[in-house]
Design goal:
By secondary structure, the protein is an alpha/beta fold. The chain contains 15 helices and 8 strands. It starts with a helix and ends with a helix.
Length: about 325
């Protein structure tokens, strides 16, 4: 049986492309008319479908837009030209993280040669030496940036990026499960943190890193994982009496979806539940709502300490009032 290469090509719908690249459907249609890219095919129902090559190029274009480039300046570049530009721009914005870890290339080499058991062993050994918090902030976070650069320059295939992500998650999950319950002082409140990503967000590594750092601070963490419907997050927060709902948003999610989801979540959560959000999405940097506390990974420790202080304040005020009486 002969099957043409075209018939074997796995295409993506416009909804798939919006979810996977963070470029809105409306924007894709505008670019199609204005710049003649992307050039979707049509399925048997007449709906737009996109080839893997077009999706990869759109991911690079979105990455460059997030780094400050205008679509009209880069959309006509070839994939190779976009990769080179993304690598140059990423290095310019992330240079301190890379320079401070000259040994990251060893981890990259293990991934590139598909020696994933050795990669995980090396990560686990580093975690034992560094401690969980330093491991996440000083090694894993810069390593993710490094891998992103390798992908942007064409050194990493998508499946290799997935191998890397899965291996890091395996190590981090094991670390979170073994975190001892830390005594933060007599009567120190222990925040109940519910972690999740919304349906548009399939990336869970950032969420797991946040969970590891919060667990190291003595928080009681419950993760719903990735792509959790918003009503389920609200129901879980009510049932578990969560103090904090923590969400992660990568750059691939449409910023409009991020803001709309955060507003809806705020409206539906019980009063007094904090919303923490983190990740590389531009919505969190440029126009995050006032009711959202945007947290970097290296801020989680202080953020939990601040939360504890806010919880103690009314108790202390009541105690002071009773003593005065």
């Amino acid at each position: 049986m002969n099957t043409s290469a075209t018939s074997l090509t796995i295409t993506s719908t416009i909804s798939d492309v919006e979810r996977d690249t963070g470029v809105a459907k409306e924007t894709l249609r505008v670019w199609e008319r204005r710049y003649d890219f992307p050039q979707p095919q049509r399925d048997t129902f007449g709906e737009r479908v996109y080839t893997p090559e077009q999706v990869s190029k759109l991911r690079l274009i979105k990455r460059l837009i997030d780094l400050g480039y205008r679509p009209g300046k880069v959309i006509q570049f070839s994939t190779a030209e976009l990769q080179a530009l993304a690598l140059k721009a990423s290095r310019a914005s992330k240079a301190p993280a890379i320079v401070s870890h000259p040994d990251l290339q060893g981890y990259v080499d293990l991934c590139k040669s598909h020696q994933m058991e050795a990669f995980r062993r090396r990560l686990a050994q580093a975690m034992l030496v560094m401690g969980l918090k330093s491991f996440v902030i000083d090694l894993v976070a810069p390593l993710i940036t490094y891998i992103g650069e390798a992908w942007a320059s064409g050194q990493f295939a998508v499946f290799e990026e997935h191998l890397f992500s899965e291996s890091v998650q395996i190590v981090l999950r094991g670390a979170v499960a073994s975190v001892p319950q830390v005594n933060h002082g007599a009567g120190a409140p222990r925040p109940r943190i519910l972690l999740a990503t919304l349906p548009q967000e399939r990336h869970g590594l950032g969420l797991l890193m946040a969970e590891a750092l919060a667990a190291a601070e003595g928080a009681h963490c419950t993760s719903l994982g990735v792509q959790t419907p918003l009503p389920d997050i609200v129901e879980a927060a009510r049932s578990m009496q969560a103090d904090i709902v923590a969400l992660s948003f990568s750059a691939t999610v449409n910023p409009r979806h991020v803001l709309d989801s955060l507003r809806e979540l705020h409206a539906r959560l019980p009063e007094g539940v904090d919303i923490w959000a983190g990740g590389a999405n531009t919505a969190l940097r440029r126009r995050a709502p006032d009711f959202v506390r945007v947290r970097e990974l290296n801020e989680i420790s202080n953020a939990i300490a601040d939360w504890r202080q806010r919880q103690r304040a009314p108790i202390q005020a009541a105690a002071d009032g009773a003593a005065a009486d």
